[in-house]
């Protein structure tokens, strides 16, 4: 099925097909079937939720790192129990999704027994969309925090040099009718939005980015030569530093601008994560918690709307609706993206996506 959207041809691909393709690709690069399936699931989950910037289009950059020898497709993270409720994971330079999944599974296990589980991860890689890690806890009936650091893309507030990662802060809780899943990058806008404006010849708001000289700019071309700006000025900058304190400083991973970028072939990423799982019925009964989450949901979405707004959403709800729609109709990939993925597949003898 193909449709025309602003001169780009899109092809809707069933999620299962995209997942199987991604799995074959990672297997071709030496990952075990289980790990290949984990990374494939992580990427397709992002495409399903509409976080297209972190979907299967990341495959070429992930496998390039394996080819360059700066990411190990075979590595198995090593978990060390520090206290009954705390563990440390040495990611051993495995795929970030594999490390984060292992860490969250351990955190959930500890929380089941003791009410809380906390895992610090070092020597990991980019784990894509944080909501995928959050969902793992929510599916197990747990609340969670999911922090990560990332390669430098933003200045600290007042600066102009790339120092802080656009490191998402994420958390979740089971809820009705939908869980609470907040997953947000601390920049004003995603870099992908600047690329889109550039392609379309549009200007951007002057608070999204600085140009190469450290000046605010409305020109997306100049913005792409400069740095992203943190959301809320010093507050977004502070959140990005918070991700680095908890994920980088604490874990033993790279920090303070030291995480290698996904396109830097010179060294491993050395990303850090910080993961906490929490039982929701620690202080009240499970029924009380559920009823209170439902009340909160209703208060949020049934509130008075501002002018021009048709519906108020709970955090994560828009992505759930998009997922439902894409599970039904398939995930729209641009033909140029499919061509690129198929070229990558052909180079290692893997069957094309479509
Ligand atoms: N691993 C990494 O290093 C890395 C780095 C950057 C971004 N990311 C990922 O990129 C993704 C993009 O982040 P983002 O900040 O651009 O996301 P976003 O701005 O689209 O959404 C941020 C949050 O706001 C909520 N939201 C959005 N619109 C809403 C509305 N109208 N009403 C109520 N809630 C709403 C979303 O559910 C989400 O929880 C995230 O999944 C993040 O994990 C990952």
TrEMBL record:
Protein name: Malate/L-lactate dehydrogenase
Keyword Oxidoreductase in record: yes
Family: Belongs to the LDH2/MDH2 oxidoreductase family.
Top-level taxon in the UniProt lineage: Eukaryota
Gene3D superfamilies for this protein: 1.10.1530.10, Hypothetical oxidoreductase yiak, domain 2
Key words, A-Z: Oxidoreductase
Species for this entry: Phialemonium thermophilum
């Amino acid at each position: 099925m193909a449709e025309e959207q602003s001169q780009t041809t899109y092809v809707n691909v069933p999620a299962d097909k995209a997942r199987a393709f991604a799995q074959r690709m990672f297997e071709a690069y030496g990952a075990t079937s289980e790990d290949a399936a984990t990374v494939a699931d992580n990427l397709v989950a992002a495409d399903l939720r509409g976080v297209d910037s972190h979907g299967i289009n990341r495959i070429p950059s992930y496998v390039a790192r394996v080819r360059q020898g700066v990411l190990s497709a075979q590595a198995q993270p090593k978990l060390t129990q520090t206290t009954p409720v705390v563990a440390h994971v040495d990611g051993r330079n495995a795929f970030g999704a594999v490390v984060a999944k292992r860490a969250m599974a351990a955190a959930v296990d500890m929380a089941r027994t003791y009410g809380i589980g906390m895992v610090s991860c070092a020597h990991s890689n980019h784990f894509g969309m944080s909501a995928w890690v959050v969902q793992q806890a929510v599916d197990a009936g747990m609340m969670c925090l999911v922090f990560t650091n990332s390669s430098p893309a933003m200045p600290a507030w007042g600066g102009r040099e790339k120092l802080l990662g656009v490191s998402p802060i994420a958390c979740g809780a089971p809820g009705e009718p939908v869980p609470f899943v907040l997953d947000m990058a601390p920049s004003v806008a995603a870099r992908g939005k600047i690329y889109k404006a550039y392609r379309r010849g549009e200007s951007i708001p002057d608070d999204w980015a600085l140009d190469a000289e450290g000046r605010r700019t409305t020109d997306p071309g100049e913005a792409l030569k400069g740095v992203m700006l943190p959301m809320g000025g010093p507050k977004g900058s502070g959140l990005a530093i918070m991700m680095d304190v908890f994920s980088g400083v604490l874990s033993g991973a790279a920090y303070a601008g030291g995480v290698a970028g996904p396109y830097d072939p010179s060294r491993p990423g050395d990303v850090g994560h910080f993961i906490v799982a929490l039982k929701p019925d620690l202080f009240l009964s499970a029924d009380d918690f559920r009823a209170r989450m439902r009340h909160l949901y209703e208060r949020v979405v049934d509130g008075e709307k501002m002018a021009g707004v048709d519906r108020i959403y709970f955090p994560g709800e828009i992505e759930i609706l998009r997922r439902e729609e894409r599970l039904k109709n398939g995930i729209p990939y641009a033909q140029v993206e499919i061509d690129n993925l198929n070229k990558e597949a052909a180079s290692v003898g893997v069957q094309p996506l479509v």
